[in-house]
Amino acid sequence: MSILYVSPHPDAFPSLRALVAARYGEAGEGPGWGGAHPRICLQPPPASRTPFPPPRLPALEQGPGGLWVWGATAVSQLLWPAGLGGPGGSRAAVLVQQWVSYADTELIPAACGATLPALGLRSSAQDPQAALAALGRALSPLEEWLRLHTYLAGEAPTLADLAAVTALLLPFRYVLDPSARRIWGNVTRWFITCVQQPEFRAVLGEVVLYSGARSLSQQSGSEVPAPPKTAAQLKKEAKKREKLEKFQQKQKVQQQQPPPGEKKPKPEKREKRDPGVITYDLPTPPGEKKDVSGTMPDSYSPQYVEAAWYPWWEQQGFFRPEYGRSSVSAPNPRGIFMMCIPPPNVTGSLHLGHALTNAIQDSLTRWHRMRGETTLWNPGCDHAGIATQVVVEKKLWREQGLSRHQLGREAFLQEVWKWKEEKGDRIYHQLKKLGSSLDWNRACFTMDPKLSAAVTEAFVRLHEEGVIYRSTRLVNWSCTLNSAISDIEVDKKELTGRTLLSVPGYKEKVEFGVLVSFAYKVQGSDSDEEVVVATTRIETMLGDVAVAVHPKDPRYQHLKGKSVIHPFVSRSLPIVFDDFVDMEFGTGAVKITPAHDQNDYEVGQRHGLEAVSIMDARGALVNVPPPFLGLPRFEARKAVLEALKEQGLFRGIEDNPMVVPLCNRSKDVVEPLLRPQWYVRCGEMAQAASAAVTRGDLRILPEAHQRTWHAWMDNIRDWCISRQLWWGHRIPAYFITVNDPAVPPGEDPDGRYWVSGRTEAEAREKAAKEFGVSPDKISLQQGKAGPWGGGQWGPILTSTPLTSDLWPPSDEDVLDTWFSSGLFPFSILGWPNQSEDLSVFYPGTLLETGHDILFFWVARMVMLGLKLTGKLPFKEVYLHAIVRDAHGRKMSKSLGNVIDPLDVIHGVSLQGLHDQLLNSNLDPSEVEKAKEGQKADFPTGIPECGTDALRFGLCAYTSQGRDINLDVNRILGYRHFCNKLWNATKFALRGLGKGFVPSPTSEPGGHESLVDRWIRSRLTEAVRLSNQGFQAYDFPAVTTAQYSFWLYELCDVYLECLKPVLNGVDQAAAECARQTLYTCLDVGLRLLSPFMPFVTEELFQRLPRRTPQAPPSLCVTTYPEPSECSWKDPEAEAAFELALSITRAVRSLRADYNLTRIRPDCFLEVADETTGALASAVSGYVQTLASAGIVAVLALGASAPQGCAVALASDRCSVHLQLQGLVDPARELGKLQAKRDEAQRQAQRLRERRATSGYTVKVPLKVQEADETKLQQTEAELRKVDEAIALFQKML
After folding, report:
1. Which residues are within 8 A (CB) of 1251 and not within 5 positions of it... i.e. 6 or more apart?
2. DSSP letter assigned to residue 538
3. DSSP per position, 69-85
4. What's the mean pLDDT in 959-988?
5. 630 Cβ contact partners less than 8 Å away, ≥ 6 residues apart
6. 103 or 1085, which is more confident?
7. Other beta carbons within 10 Å of 1190
8. Which of 130, 860, 910, 961 has the smallest C-beta neighbourhood within 10 Å, fewest atoms?
9. Does residue 650 contact residue 641 with C-beta atoms inside 8 Å?
10. Quick one: pLDDT band at residue 1211, thresholds 50, 70, 90?
11. Alpha-carbon distance values, 1025 to 1022, 1032, 1044, 1045 (Å)
């Protein structure tokens, strides 16, 4: 019996590390060293049994008198289950080893150094600030790495995570308070995720994070109570806490970064906290305009701002293309913009992926509408055949205990329609909450009569042309659904070796990821010769019809023309020679099962082999002898293996990396089965679609996707469009029986016996004409041919026809959902009937969607559009990125990371997120896993962000060709931006005054000040970048330009410079400033409107109008264009850039010397008279923006007063900030010397670390880069400190 000796102390993290590793060993395949699970002993080992020197805990004794191993690293590695630490020699294993080493050498010393003094376990003479700084440096590589990774190595916890988490237990329990955890957000998220894992929780229990207040009971360093502290000790501790707070605040400032592409944010004044949720309570009937005559609330509130606007927009018809014109066909010189929505599935709620799609599409739609184009964004919803049927079946079973077969087809379809009415409204409600400016009068559902008629018409036309045909081929089959499924509904689960998976319908887990070898005896061989083959699906050997070898394989040349004997079925299997066989894999011999493998099917076609199907629609075995007959496929797997062993034909089993196809709806293992289905012949249509892109008739953006497009089109296969479901468009095809002895019965694959028709009468007429009989002799069967319908199943075996036992009678097939979706761009407009909408809006302008459905939807729309209408369905395709969670994981209900956009808009508690899981269709086992995911990602729930912040944030994230790792905290940052807009407009309205009247045009009056000219010039640039970005689909460029203008230029600079003007005595200057301010608000709100429709409408409605004829709403107001805003002023920008450079230099110096509450005098040293004149002109602005005292320009050659700190504003101007009399030089020198010593120590440690042998090989590249950056920063800090020391020495 092995024994694991550990410390009983709850904070003994080395022992905790070993215990968690042992837990993983129990949950996995056993300890990595191969022994049994050890017994746990909570005390040191007896001295009589220990080796020398005495082992430190944890220690592992491998049996009495056996090998001793001690130390957390070695013991954990032995206890961790084999394989979970990363396969040996692989990149994953190296990564695990590197992080384990980093935890042992960097994290543990830093964590103990920071924590133990705080607990009174080390000398108080140690500097807590230095210890915390060391911990921060150790956490930095972790923070950077975890920004893009869920765990340190791989997609599940490894030894690396175990080592690092246990190393950080003490800091998280006793040092890192909430503000520090916000600084290290990625590390905190990862830490919480890990400690919530069952194996961690079993050992650690509930890990309570440090709240910022430590009770004496937590200071468990000693059982003996600590003596009372002296006044001097208490004073010293107070200083420590003060230093700690300063350090944490500094770390927070360093970690905060603006959204990508935006300027570094300037220090902002702390905004007042929101007083609470502010709501709009004035009685406003739906559709009536919101009352904005009252006083603006003190702060921005999404609930207040978003109330009542959408019903008014909809009631007024602003979203309809008819608005403002006599008809949609009226000529419009501005052009037409038409886009149809990618119809969301009716299967439930929208997620953030849909929100991204709608944020992008609505911003584009609003931009085009504001430009004056005839604009239509057409809504719709997809019936989602398989997904909807699965959801309703689960609901039916959960609520009534009935299957759909017990209920019956018609009653079941009524349940589906009832469910659709409930869920469909929720989807449309979400779209409206997102502010989507869709024309709801034109909303469509793919099962509506209009669209169903288009589906029937398309099928009949294509069938008549021979583009749609019937064939028996291998398909992806879900035995749970009893239906064929499309490739997009198949998830590929990668396995590295032997794995047990849960499969619907089986009580025990099923083994995958192994390769079973067995022998076939050569027929007629006197020497008992055999051919060994291997397979991952041993049950399919019952359907083997041949063994294949490579024609050039010398091992099998003597077997040409020979056969092997099947041990269970009375047939011999010919040995065939085919180039597809890999001679290097296994024995070089491959079993051939044409009815259950795509490659084998193609080999069978080449060699004329029969295809023996051994599974029915439910996955039970047929056409096999007892005892296998009737067994479920994975029960048969075990039975075949045992039978091979009994006959002495089993040759071995080994781990084998493989991919298991899973149905993403039923989670069943997909089975390749031969099945008669309907297909679309895609070759010619694909060539036309590919040529359209090559010619430039169809643009695909980003252009990188064009290569994928051509690759798919060049290698396209025919498309299986039939599904064995109840919910969907029934296929308008009929299997016919001719009641005439002269006409033989038809078989399924024979196309002559299948007719299509818009009505049964039309189909009957076609059949009568085909066979030359009267219509009354024709019987029609819609759906499959079958023994009950007058025909006979087409033979899947060349020798044995299918029977009703193999394919039991089932209901009529329906069409693949993607078929009706492929018709969407023109079916929603009334095709095949001519209509005004079809003539005006087809072809559409743009198709915007995610790149993941480029083939499944976009390509099929293009192919069907060209084939059925002769026109491309749209001129451009813009493919946005895919939204993932903050850890880069695909959003999945089972992970608990699927986010409802409404939860981001309104906010939701953690319990509220849990409750949503209980109301979902997840299995109970998945619900618990999802709850853990939610708790790790949203420990306090999701804060209220509002629609505008969500939309703006999603568009700001969008970068062409990249996936989006969405962090909800960043969306919250844009809610703060909305608050900034609110406060800025509120201040501006006060500055304008009640009697303000804007001038009829936005043109300047000619008396604008320098700052007026500068802000107009910057506004011109924002207008240019916004229009340019919209045209190029560069949404981050647009959001960055608008964010920067409002925050960094209008709020931070212009409004500050305006305060003394508006409060001054020069009324002419004040009026000029008011007109400029109004123009900034007017144009700035119009710029933002496509992204933030609610807050911009709310603020715009509070502004006075330039003319009485102004449009009633911002969403139908003209979008600012460069021709309207042509106020570019390079001279003003150059002059004001000097003012801003001087301001930045002054602010930097004030921060360096902690002059936050003092207005020091500033002296500007210039290199020439021109710069001096400019500096004099902007000195007043510098005084305002930098909160400086006197701002004076020194004469050329003059020296600055003694006691000034200096900084460069530009190569032509230096800033001297007066410190004499404001600071104590001696005291500052003491601080600086201590700071210099610490910086030198840190730099020396970094240099020594980088100089160690093996550093460039053993340390992760990202850690090396972080070390180099830290060294450069430390050296720069040293130079600044030396300059400051020299300055203060002169002041003594």
Report:
1. none
2. G
3. EESHHHHHHHHSBTTTT
4. 84
5. 620, 621, 622
6. 1085
7. 12
8. 961
9. yes
10. confident
11. 5, 10, 11, 11
Match 């040349």 to its residue by tokens. Answer: 557
CA 135 – CA 5 distance, rounded (Å) = 30
Q: Are 532 and 664 in contact (CB under 8 A)?
A: no
Coil, helix or strand for 415?
helix
Contact 978, 946 (CB under 8 A): yes
Quote the pLDDT of residue 811: 36
Q: Which one, of 9, 15, 343, 308, lies nearest residue 1098 by Cα?
A: 308
What confidence tens digit (pLDDT) does each residue in 570-593 have? 889 999 999 999 998 889 999 999
Q: Residue 299 corresponds to which tokens in the numbers above?
A: 């702060």
Q: Which residue type does 1214 have?
A: S
Nearest-angstrom CA–CA distance, 1115 and 795: 63
Exposure b/e, 570-605, CB count within 10 A at least 16 = b: eebbbbbbbeebebeebbbbbbbbbbbbebbbebbe
Q: Report the side by side order of strands in the sheet with 844-850.
A: 699-701, 874-880, 844-850
332-342 residue pLDDT tens:
999 999 999 99
> Rg (Cα) of the chain, in Å, rounded?
37
Interatomic CA distance for residues 1092 and 1157, integer angstroms:
37
How far is 408 from 28, CA to CA, in rounded Å? 45
In contact, 184 and 127? CB cutoff 8 Å: no
CB 454 within 8 A of CB 726: no
E strand map for 216-341: 336-340
Percent of the chain's residues with pLDDT above 70:
87
Residue 879 belongs to what H/E stretch? strand 874-880
How many CB atoms sit inside 10 A of residue 442's CB?
19
Q: What are phi and psi of 1060, to 5 degrees?
A: -65, -25
Distance of alpha carbon 867 from alpha carbon 844, whole angstroms: 16
H-only helix segments in 325-408: 352-370, 385-400, 404-407
Residue 574 backbone class (left: φ over 0; alpha: ψ -120 to 50; beta: rest): beta
**408-467 tens-digit pLDDT:** 889 999 999 988 887 767 788 889 999 999 999 999 999 999 999 999 999 999 999 999
Could you tell me which of 8, 251, 291, 266 has the C-alpha nearest to residue 114?
251
Supply the pLDDT for residue 273.
44
Question: Can you give the pLDDT at residue 905?
Answer: 92
